[in-house]
Amino acid sequence: MVLDLSDEKPQLTPLVIGLTRPPMMWGIPLNAFYIIVGVTLIAFLVSSSFWSVLIAPLIYLALFAFCSRDIRILDLAQVVGRRTPRTPNRLFWRTNSYGP
Questions:
Q1: In this predicted model, what pLDDT tens digit does every residue of 33-77 receive, in sequence order?
Q2: Rg (CA), the chain
Q3: Could you give the C-alpha distances from 62 to 28, 42, 68, in angstroms and in order?
Q4: What is the dihedral of CA 76, 77, 79, 80, to 10 degrees?
Q5: Is 24 helix (H, G, I), strand (E, B) or coil?
Q6: How many CA atoms lie within 13 A of 13 on its CB side?
Q7: Which pTM was predicted?
């Protein structure tokens, strides 16, 4: 019985990044695209002016920069918002504090 202790790299099957990436439109995740559409529509309904459409490229650039480091940052923020409970002493400490 011979034990091979060589420093060869193991043979790995590459994982295709497209299988793990969320659905995207124009380089941003779909939920970021929905945010752009929603904010633009609300701005249009409030102002009743087509000039409110000019806010969409600004929001797109901000979300593109925000999602460029981590593509799932909006999903993470959504989970934190849903799963982190508000504490009674939030007004005193101006944050959630689970200690006294």
A1: 999 999 999 999 999 888 888 999 999 999 999 888 888 888 888
A2: 23
A3: 11, 18, 10
A4: 110
A5: strand
A6: 0
A7: 0.64
